[in-house]
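User: My advisor, Dr. K., asked me to get a structural model of this assembly before our group meeting. I'm new to this, so sorry if the format is off. These are the inputs:
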Amino acid sequence: MSAQAGTAIIGGGIVGLCVALGLAARGHEVLVLDGRDGDMRASQGNFGLVWLQGKGAGYAPYARWSFQAVQAWPDFAKCLSGLADVDLALCQQGGYEFFTDAAEYEAFGHDLHRQANALDDRLSFELLNHADLAARLPGIGQRVVGASFCPLDGHVNPLRLHFALRQACLASGVRITGGASVVSVRPEGAGFALLDETGRQTRASRVVLCAGLGAAHLGPQLGFRAPIRAQRGELMITERVADRLPFLSSTIRQVDEGGFQIGGTKAETDCDTETTTTMVGLAQHAVAVWSRLADLRVLRSWAALRVMTPDGYPIYQRSADHPGAFLVTCHSGVTLAPLHATRLAEWIDGDPAAPDLEAFDERRFALS
Amino acid sequence: MNAASRFRDAPGAAPRSLRLMLDGVPVLARPGESVAAALLAHSGGATRQTPVTGAGRAPYCMMGVCFDCLVTIDGHPNVQACMVSAREGMVIQRQIGARRLGDQP
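Assistant: The format is fine. Below is the predicted structure of the whole assembly, which you can bring to the meeting.
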């Protein structure tokens, strides 16, 4: 059995579907090859932040790219909701980073100044000591020594984003197959031949590798280095609450339906099982920040694997050896979604109006 | 047993000697049975409204899995009624929507 596609996208997560939507909007015939339910899926385990503060403090191109993405989110959400008839619950009313360690608070303040410099001071943010913070958020925990606030930060319902992207892709004529991981991809003739684990073959003129952690295995088959690794994040979900939390933070957020999501841990491992000690730490952190959360029941917990590059920034790479092959990978697929669905599609097409993405070339890792 | 309930007592079942209150209405229960079983025997009607759509729900799985039996017991919101044994004098409210923060007794 064999299928034909103009552009085949390997991976039906948030990144792959954004690219598919963008290419379909430019008139291309697109096939998304999604994997199995049991595959590692960052798109189904993430926290749902549309986040700017701290991003690209040490790398101006990433600071600018993230800034553009956050600014593009309102229109993107409107457009996507229209295509898919799904409410994404986007809320961009600002977010906090809370610190219980004075040295970390100070260091992050320096990062924000560097990030603001990289953005020619278009980044607005506030650094609040405990007294300032307590005046704004009565009830903040005594152990919180300080916080940063960025009015551009926000969050979205990530599962509905994923669903909406899928619906929008289908409405735009994108074909999506699933249930089978692609095991090999190789150049053949003027295009590419893909094979999935069930033996199904696909031939495509172009191929975009958006397979998350799967790119580490598939990338080298197309000549990419694909230096990515897994980083585990663990999080927990509480019962739903009628009251609205008066803040959003990078570690505590209330989803639109009322439950609290508490997370933000980082561990260098490719094992996606949550751990009791980390859960205890998350619960203690939440209560240290906002003691009224103390009696809430935790309903669910899980771990998911971030898709990390050595420097944490995205890789957008076109193959030098095999024209028509692209590698797209990042760990901020939610925040960057509006650009992946628009500007990145221009770049894949080689449109003269496309942004210059050379800063995200994976050859940067060979130079260091 | 209430005539409105679809549940019937087994022959020879022990008498309902415990008295609970559900939203101000007396509900009888047997020693050793769960609050959920007593509520089903009482009327079998909805004992909560879901937070998202407001749909009415009643105890279903009776083994702690489905969370459809949530009620407030003695001031504690969102208690799984199927996992708690009935006790004399329990004050129970139907769980209407999401709980509040900090509404502990």
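One thing worth pointing out at the meeting: The two ends of chain B are 30 Å apart (CA to CA).

User: Perfect, thanks a lot.
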